[in-house]
Structure formats: structure tokens, C-alpha cells
Design the sequence.
């Protein structure tokens, strides 16, 4: 089993779009995602084209793709990027057959290395839904430090929810 993580190419961003648009309502709820806030597929593609046309240090988001034996099984993204300082990470095992099998931890560890290198970070935060056990366990296994659990709207796709705030520093 060969796990690889690398920056996502524009041609691979369909994985992100389809992951959210094809997800069951129960899965979106577990993620804390409000399906009425999803951009249309076309609007999302246009946003990706705009973002990917920018130098990395100017992008509002940065994506990596997770590969198992050269097949995409998930992705991670960063937003709220303050280049050279900090960012917020998100993690998604897109292949439902691979969830809860331990692949997330290996992929998160490799993603963290890319984020720290490419975005020159000092701190990387992650705030999964507090009731979504899998990413919280994954972050703990990946050596993130628990900071707190609080109520917030973590991003533009989310509803108000309890999240667990984690950090890893360099």
C-alpha cells in the first residue's frame, strides 16, 4: 500500500466539488456543512481557476490530494492563510470505503509537511465538528495539540456548531 500526498492540480479539483455535491445529507451534517451553502459546480470551478492562477503565497486556499496506490482517496485544504504565519486545515477521506481504516493519519502527517513547507507556516490549526469522532482522533494521532472546544461557524459552507480546535506548531 503506497500512500502519497502532493499539492493538488487544478485538473484534480473536481474531486473536491463532487465530494461535497454527492455526499449524503447525513455525511454533510456530520461535517457541519450546510448543503444550501454549497456553491454550484460551475461557480466552484471558476473559483478554483481564479485561485490556481495566483502564486501560492497569494491564494486564499491551498489544496493537497491524497493518493493510495496512485488513486485519489481524499484531500486536505487550508484556508484563513496568513502566509509565513498560520492557516486552518480541513481533511476529508473522499473514498468512503477507506474511512476509519487509519489512512487519514498518514495523509494528515504528509499534508502537514507540505503546508509548513509551501506556506512557510509556524502554526497550523484544524477545527473539525466536535461530534465527528474520526478527524478528532486523527488529529490527536498526528500529534496535534488540543486547544479547546467552542461554538463557531468555521467556514462559509458551515452552520453554527461545536468544534474542537487543534494546533500543530514548528
Sequence:
Amino acid at each position: 500500500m503506497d500512500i502519497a500526498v502532493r499539492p493538488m492540480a487544478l485538473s484534480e479539483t473536481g474531486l473536491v466539488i463532487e465530494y461535497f455535491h454527492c455526499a449524503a445529507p447525513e455525511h454533510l451534517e456530520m461535517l457541519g456543512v450546510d448543503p444550501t451553502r454549497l456553491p454550484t459546480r460551475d461557480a466552484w470551478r471558476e473559483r478554483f481557476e481564479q485561485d490556481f492562477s495566483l502564486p501560492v503565497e497569494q491564494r486564499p486556499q491551498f489544496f493537497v490530494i491524497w493518493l493510495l496506490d496512485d488513486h485519489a482517496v481524499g484531500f486536505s485544504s487550508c484556508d484563513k492563510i496568513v502566509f509565513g504565519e498560520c492557516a486552518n486545515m480541513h481533511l476529508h477521506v473522499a473514498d468512503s470505503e477507506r474511512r476509519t481504516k487509519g489512512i487519514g493519519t498518514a495523509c494528515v502527517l504528509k499534508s502537514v509537511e507540505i503546508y509548513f513547507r509551501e506556506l512557510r507556516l509556524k502554526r497550523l490549526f484544524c477545527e473539525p465538528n466536535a461530534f465527528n469522532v474520526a478527524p478528532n482522533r486523527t488529529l490527536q494521532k498526528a500529534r496535534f495539540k488540543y486547544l479547546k472546544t467552542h461554538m463557531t461557524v468555521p467556514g462559509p459552507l458551515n452552520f453554527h456548531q461545536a468544534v474542537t480546535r487543534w494546533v500543530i506548531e514548528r
The radius of gyration is 15 Å. The first strand starts at residue 3 and ends at 7. The longest helix spans residues 103-118.
